[in-house]
Amino acid sequence: METGTRTRLFQKLMGKFWGLFIISCCLVLGLANCQSQPDAAQLDFWQKQAIDLNASITQTIADQNQNNPVQEWYLTIHGQVQQKSVLRLSELQNLSQQEIKTTNPHNTENRQEIETLQGIAVSQLLEKAGVEPSVQEVTFLSSNNYRVTVSLEDLKNYPILLAWGKNGKPLSRSEGGPLYLVFPYSDYPELPDRYSDAFWAFYVTDMIVGNEPGMIKVDIKPFDVGSKVFDRAALDALPQTSIEEPVGYKFGWPVGKVKLTGVKLRDIITTANIDLTSQGRVFIKGKASLSSEPQEPVQLPSQEVLNCDIILATRWGEDAIPIPSSMGGPITLAFSDRCQNGVTLSPKNSQHWATLVERVEVN
């Protein structure tokens, strides 16, 4: 059961308890003496009521949890497909179930054990989504912003699964659940060389087929007013800035300095007709959590956004190639130490090189 629902239930039941408490107090002691000290017998009576009510609350919550044992998990399939789709875990389970028997490189107790993993073949999901002819690869994104990219040809030729079960039981979070990308190592001994254990992605939430066109929403937090959406053409039409820095992205980028081209963060905010005050903050959000803290977006002080070259990059390299999904594109957040007016980019903030950026909120 969700935390908010549990809290409302608890408040409702406790409201009933305190109502009984006050009524009992007033009936026993008299309305005028409602603030008087109760005697031992009355305290025992109220304590018994509280114990009984606590048992009732506990049983009600247990019943609710039995009806809703796991919070729903979603898989989003998008990119170069005929139609974007969002599927609940329960819907995936109803579509089909396939099993593979294989060793699991993340089995910490016995890496040689043959596990039976249940899930749905990625090839079936791709067939259902309708893949555009030019697609060559699929990127899988996890809820912690981890991503891996697999060849479309291999996804079609091998029974690579998004697994939700192991040996007939649901996968726990420590085992990579609710959705875990797994490879049939045991039946296809060539696969470990092609896809190491780093490709076995935990907590999968997104399948990005090929590349996305690129779109970003800019608005005011927390009211969601004055929103403006920029597609790739609109971003390319704005003044472009290039920086050359050792990138801070975690996966799929060259070592050393890389040239990145895009739009200054302050310019896109200004173009959206949003007044960025010197005391405000700018929040950067993407498909998954972009910072090390769960559920927390990247937060940047306005002073740094106004005075430093922080860009939303859409292209990379000397040839200004569009950033693909396999590298965290089409839009990434990048930092240069070029600042003005005596402002210095905080070292902590400069570590927030974010990928798969989709939204900018100004507070």
Q: Provide the gyration radius in Å.
A: 27 Å
Give the assembly state of these chains: single chain
Helix share, percent: 25-40%
| Computed structural class | alpha+beta
Q: What spatial form do the alpha-carbon principal axes imply? A: elongated
- Could you tell me the number of beta strands? 20
Profile the largest sheet. Answer: 5 strands, mixed
Going by CATH, the homologous superfamily of the largest domain would be: Oxidoreductase, molybdopterin-binding domain
CATH A-level architecture of the largest domain = Alpha-Beta Complex
Name of the CATH first level of the largest domain: Alpha Beta
* H/E topology pattern: HHEEHEEHEEHEEEHEEEHEEHEEHEEEE
CATH topology of the largest domain: Sulfite Oxidase, Chain A, domain 2
Number of helices: 9
Strand order of the largest sheet: 2-1-10-5-6
Distance between the termini: 32 Å
Strand content: 25-35%
What is the count of distinct domains? 3
Unreliable segments of 5+ consecutive residues? 1-36, 48-70, 291-295
The average pLDDT is 81
